Structure formats: C-alpha cells, structure tokens
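As described in the Methods, two query proteins were run sequentially through the folding procedure within a single session, without resetting any intermediate state between them. The first query and its resulting structure tokens are shown here.
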Amino acid sequence: MNASFQLYSARDYTSWKDTFELLGKLGYTRVEGFGANYEDAAETKAMLDANGLTMPSAHFFPISNFEDDFDKTITTARTLGIKQLYCPAPEDDLRDGGDAAGWIALAKRMETAAKRVQDAGLRFGWHNHHWEFMPLENGAIPMNLIFEHAPSIEWEIDVAWVVRGGADPLVWIENHKDRITAAHVKDIAPKGQCEDEDGWADLGHGTLDWKTYMDALRGIGVDILVMEHDKPSDVARFAERSIATFKTL
C-alpha cells in the first residue's frame, strides 16, 4: 500500500515539520507537493527523508511554471525526486466560464509544456476541477477540448471534482484509461453537512462509492492515489480517517 497525501490539504496546519511527522506516523509513504513546499526544496527533501516519505508527484500552478519558470520548475522537481508534474487548475479567466477558444489555447500551452517536460526526462499532466466538465455555451466540454488539443499530456483524475462537475467518473476512467496516471481520492459530504469544510468529507465518511472507483483505477494500473481534502477543519483527523479507509479499499 502506497498512500499519498496532497500537502495542500495541510496548508493551514502548524508546520511542515509537524505535517511530515504526522503523515509518517500514520503510515503514509508518499506526498504530493504544491507551491509552498518549493520555497526551500532542499529543506523539504530533508524533512521527507527524515520521515520515510517520497514525493513522486507534485502540482505546479499556474501553467507559466512550465513556460517562463521552466528551468526553476525542473530543478525543483529533481531536488525533490518528483517524476510526475501536474498543472492543477486553469487561470481565473476560464473558471466558471470561458469559451472554447480559451480552453483550446490553454490546451495548446499544455501540449508545449508536456513536450518540454518529457524532453527533460520527466512527465507532465493535468489535474481537473469541476470546470472542465461543465458545458460551454456551444455545448463543448472543456475536458474533451483539452484532450483533443493536448494529446501528449497525462491526467491526474480528481474523482470528486468530476462528480461535482456533473459527470460520471467511471465513464471518464474507461474512456481515458491510457491517459490516467494518478488520482485524487477524496469524498463529498451528504447535502447540508460539513458546510464549514465546503461540503467535503474525509474518505469513507461521505457519499462516494470509493470501493467501485478504486477498483476501476487500480484496474487500469493507477498506483499514485492521493488523499486530499480541500478545506479540512482538522488535518490530523482527515489524514487518520482517510488512510484507515484507504487500507480497506
């Protein structure tokens, strides 16, 4: 079992030192990084090593990290041992709107980024939210536009965000099984619950059928499975409950 933890979930926790110690004690073996972890990459690497953790995947936002700041991004990845680099979100103009031309332009930037990252010996992909599954005015689905115009990218599927976007994760997993190389594992609270946590829930304490989703993901060979909660009120509770559920799946 190689449970990973998206460190964005712990951005409001006491310290990264405490976070890594907590995760190591709970049995996590991997973490997924984000911007705050790169301020002193060497220090982050030392804390990971001290707690038996690795960082095989990470988020770099915005997409300009793979353009203007490409050399810095690759250096950070190599320092931390990151092999799979994902851009986790579009810029603001494509959130809750945008048009087909905007999504196509972003996809073309992704395709260029993918080629550059691959030429550096690493891997590049996209991580979704709900926006990518919400039909545009012309009926197009942004996620389809992304895959059409960025054929070389991988996909880290965030199952819960697919659901929030009104789509069926199992259909998307089946249709894009050759592209999916990682997954975010989180849960959605029953309606009216966990409103102070934006309606998210600890894994196994929400409404999603994670046994079915996990079977589908493992069935296509996904082994980077990342626990995430976008706004936990108690990080230790979330981390402990989620890995306990993960061990049963």
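Immediately afterward, the second query was submitted; its sequence and tokens are:
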Amino acid sequence: MTLPLFGTAALCRGLEQQARSVVRLRTLDAESPKAETDFIIVRTDDDLKQAVLNGDESIFAIDDGRGRFLSADRMPRRTIAVSAQFSYLDEGDIIGVHAPSGKFRTLYRHNSRHNSFLVTERCNNYCLMCSQPPKDIDDRWILNEIRESLPLLDKETRTLTFTGGEPLSDWAGFISILSECRDQLPKTAIQVLTNGRAFAKSEIVDAWRKVNHPSLIAAIPVYAAVDHVHDYVVQAKGAFDETILGILKLKDRGQRVEVRVVLHAQTAPIIAETCRWLARNLSFVDHVALMGLENTGFAIANEAQLWIDPIDYQAALAEAVEVLVAANVNVSVYNLQRCVLAPSVWPYAVQSISDWKNAFIAECQSCTEKTRCAGFFSSGRPRRSRAIGPIG
C-alpha cells in the first residue's frame, strides 16, 4: 500500500493566526525542550490525560476510528486531530497545515531515508512521463514552508532531496534555501532534481557555486545522445542544448552532477548508444543513474508511447552499464527488479524506490534476492514485466 502523505484534519483549531503553519510532532516522553511549533502526539485517552497533566497545550491526536478525539470541548487550546491512516506519524516528523481548510501534508519523516521537499509545481519542461505534472500557478509559498521546516529537521538527517516541477523556477529564492541547508544541515547530502536548463545562465550557476554546501549535487536528465529525441521526451525545443551547456558550466565550476536517464520505449532501445555518448562526452560527471519508469502522472496518459517490458531491453541495459563501467563512470540502476536484469548488472542495481511507495508482490516471497531488490512502485498504475519471478 502507498503511504498517505496528505489529508484533511477532522479537527484543526488554534492555528488561525496564520493561514499556513509548520508543525513538528513530539511524543509525550520527548526529552528536548518543546518549541512553539511542537505538537504532542496522543493516541489514547491515557495519552491525552497525561498531556493535560503535563500542561501541554498543543496536541496532535491520531484517532483510532471511533471519533473520540473530535470533541473540541475536551481538547487543549491548539489541536489537530487526524484519522488512523496517519498512525505512522511519530516523534520528529514534520507536517505543513493549511488552517482554514484543515488540509495537511507530511513534509518530513524522521525515521525515513527518503525525505524530499516539493519546491514548486511549475516547470519549463513538459515531460511525457512526468510523475508530478506541471502547473502554471504561483506556489512560492512553498519556499516559505520549506524555510520554516529546515530548523526543525534532525541535524543528523543523512539525505534530503528537493524536487518539482523545476526547483529553479524561482532560482534566487530556491538557492537561498540551499544556503540555509549549508548552515543548518552541513552533514546532510542534498540532492536537487532539476532539468538543468537554468544552469545555461552563468548568473544562476555562479549563485549555485557560492552556496558551497559540502554535499550538494544536481541530478539532471539526459534522455538521448541526439537533441531531437531528448527534446521530444521533455516536450521543449532547445532543451537538450541548454541542459548540456548547464552540465558543462556546473562541472567547469567544480560542482557535483548526476545524469539521469529514465528508461521507457523512447529511451530504452537506444540506451547503449546514449551511454556511449555519455562515456565519450560527459565522463567527468559524478554519477549516472539509469532508472526504471514509474507509471504514474503523465506516464499513464502516455502509456502507449512509453511502456516497454524491461526484459525487452535487458541486453541493451547490460551493454550500457558495461560501457560506463569501462569508462570509469560511476553508474547505478534504479527502480528495476533483479529478475529482469542481467546478472552482470546486479552489482549496480540499488534499492531506490521511496519507502512510502515501495512494495513487493506474492512472487517475491520465495526469491533469494528479495532483500537486495528494488521491488515495485505501489503508486500510479503499476506495470509488471512478463519475466517477474523468484530467483533461486
């Protein structure tokens, strides 16, 4: 099952001073001092009684389905009450709340290694397989929400991803966020999923360089070795030239870059040729990720153009990996099950699917490679290869 990351609170009061608030969740036994943003998690009547005895005036009630926390009269001054499907929320998690509507989103989960912030839904690409279809809206309020969230994150957070849309749509505002990450999360690896076109402008790439975060990387898609194929996939004429120029400018300034290739019917059949081009022309990038398709968003609408059984490009993918390895390019394969990969690719295949939408099926239970396998996306409209089956 896909973990629900957003919903509407059954009760939301005491947050009326501003339309949007960022809330950090704490348990009753939390030892560190409680900040104004902190709400105490209560799951039972005993929890509620203890919170009241403790003088806690900010409560995050997770109901068990009986509606026992929905009476405003018995709840403290500031209360958010949600249904049992959000019972996964726990100590150190952070949510964003829109008080007028009661709508909320999970922004950060303390115990997850797959935390990401959506920066914007705006984008200057219109990719055939986009999992977050772009919208032409003013959503700059999201940057403020992220800015409020950063001080609340665990300083030991290992990785954090920024995604979109195109995060550099409001490049000055977003780069200021990266500067705050440098100051507040210097030990956290920061990854930005960007189409890279903004870096064709020296002003932007210079501002990025000045951030000087010790573990910042731009993850940029290159879908083919020829411009017209890449431009078709992203539905933007001239995008290939801007993207490659952006990568060159980043590397010229000593910045870390990952090249990503999503594998589908437009890109998978030519993946060996694409990787030969990458090995010849962009061998200095820090990492190349070859990624199985998540069948969601625009990928569902364009399924006829995009779906290809991974077993049908197994040999091409193995050749592509071999080419990159021979050129000393760091390469990984994401989102693909081990049973559809050639054994030579297994050392490069990683468990990459975010935990909130990662699943396995019945055929996987007896597989000897399950603990090392990426598994499946539970989001969207999952498609499975005809070659899926247990190994060993």
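The first strand starts at residue 6 and ends at 8. We note this only descriptively and draw no conclusion about the first query from it.
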